[in-house]
């Protein structure tokens, strides 16, 4: 058995007792189910993903099923998970898996990274959680745990850099199974205990090893570099409202759509903002314009 650090051992031991029973973690999980969960969980909490994931896997249990589905059905099923372009990329990913890999999710990192919508994190997560392979899995939760426990900082820097990757890689056990357990355990610790805003240090299995705790819990040194995105009154809010309307109708005329938006969105909504948001959705492939009417693709 390969050597692991006491910090890794403590976190993995905690996870064995406290990890959530999620369907994409169970022994009967499929690599496709894991991949779908990872795409859905991007910037979206588990409580919102669970019902959608279950519905999705019932409707499209394999990449071939999703690849053949009408895109409008896919966008309706995505519902309000946010960033609906992820749904389009997931369907493109399914088609690529069918065309390039015979309908089976590949376990090779290079092949995974070549799929539409699959970046560094998702490829590593699929290798670890679907195939039990060694990978450096770095989502926001894992980064935060390592930043605090090892780096002594409140939060990791806004952008992932080489030094942070090297620090994370040094913690990953060499053994495939042990590495996959560490990936899941460190992610779960960050999600449940070592949270961003209200960490429960009294419940943490590594509080006595934590460099941030030993330093007296100093504040976030990168606070000024972090940007918060506005929502109310933005094109993003308008786009979300447009998608919600399109999911309920086969087709809707532009004037009616604009009128409905004015009923549901903040006062002061300008016609130019509606037109800009609609045009953006069409360009992104999330809506289709037929004359003066709009519909899902």
| CATH topology tier name of the largest domain | Endonuclease III, domain 1
| N-to-C SSE string, H for helix and E for strand | HHHHHHHHHHHHHEHHEE
Q: Round the Cα radius of gyration to an integer and report it.
A: 22 Å
Largest sheet, spatial ordering of strands = 1-3-2
Shape: globular
Q: Care to count the β-strands? A: 3
Structural classification: mainly alpha
Q: Uncertain segments of ≥5 residues (pLDDT<50)? A: none
Strand content: under 5%
Number of helices: 15
Number of domains: 3
CATH class identity of the largest domain: Mainly Alpha
How many angstroms separate the termini? 52 Å
Write the layout of secondary structure elements.
Elements: H1 6-18, H2 31-40, H3 46-59, H4 63-67, H5 71-78, H6 85-101, H7 109-113, H8 120-131, H9 140-151, H10 162-171, H11 176-192, H12 211-214, H13 235-248, E1 252-253, H14 254-264, H15 271-283, E2 288-290, E3 293-295
Antiparallel strand pairs: 1-3, 2-3
Walk me through this protein's architecture.
The longest helix is centred in the first third of the chain and has 17 residues, at 85-101. It is globular and about 65 Å long. The relative contact order is 0.11. The mean pLDDT is 93. Helix 9 crosses helix 11. The protein is an all-alpha fold and 297 residues long. Strands 1-3-2 form a three-stranded antiparallel sheet. Helix content is 56%, strand content 3%. It folds into three domains: 6-131, Endonuclease III, domain 1; 140-225, Helix-hairpin-Helix base-excision DNA repair enzymes (C-terminal) (Endonuclease Iii, domain 2); 235-295, Arc Repressor Mutant, subunit A (Orthogonal Bundle). Strand 2 (288-290) and strand 3 form a beta hairpin.
């Amino acid at each position: 058995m390969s050597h692991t650090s006491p910090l890794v051992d403590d976190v993995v031991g905690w996870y064995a007792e406290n990890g959530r029973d999620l369907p994409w973690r169970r022994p009967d999980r499929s690599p496709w189910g894991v991949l779908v969960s990872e795409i859905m969980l991007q910037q979206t909490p588990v409580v919102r993903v669970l019902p959608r994931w279950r519905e999705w896997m019932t409707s499209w249990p394999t990449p071939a099923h999703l690849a053949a589905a009408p895109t409008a059905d896919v966008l309706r099923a995505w519902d309000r998970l946010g960033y609906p372009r992820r749904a389009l990329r997931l369907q493109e990913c399914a088609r690529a898996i069918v065309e390039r890999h015979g309908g089976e999710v590949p376990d090779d990192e290079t092949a995974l990274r070549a799929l539409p919508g699959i970046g560094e994190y998702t490829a590593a997560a699929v290798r670890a959680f679907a195939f039990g392979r060694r990978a450096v899995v770095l989502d926001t939760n894992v980064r935060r745990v390592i930043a605090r426990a090892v780096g002594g900082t409140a939060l990791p820097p806004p952008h992932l850099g080489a030094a942070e990757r090297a620090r994370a890689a040094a913690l990953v056990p060499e053994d495939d199974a042990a590495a996959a357990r560490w990936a899941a355990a460190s992610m779960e610790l960050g999600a449940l205990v070592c949270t961003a805003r209200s960490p429960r240090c009294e419940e943490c299995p590594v509080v006595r090893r934590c460099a941030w705790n030993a330093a007296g819990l100093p504040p976030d040194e990168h606070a000024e570099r972090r940007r918060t995105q506005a929502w109310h009154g933005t094109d993003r809010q308008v786009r979300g409202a447009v998608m919600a309307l399109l999911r309920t109708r086969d087709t809707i005329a532009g004037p009616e759509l604009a009128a409905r938006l004015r009923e549901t969105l903040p006062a002061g909504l300008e016609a130019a903002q509606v037109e800009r948001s609609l045009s953006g959705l069409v360009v992104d492939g999330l809506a289709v314009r037929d004359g003066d009417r709009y519909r899902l693709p």
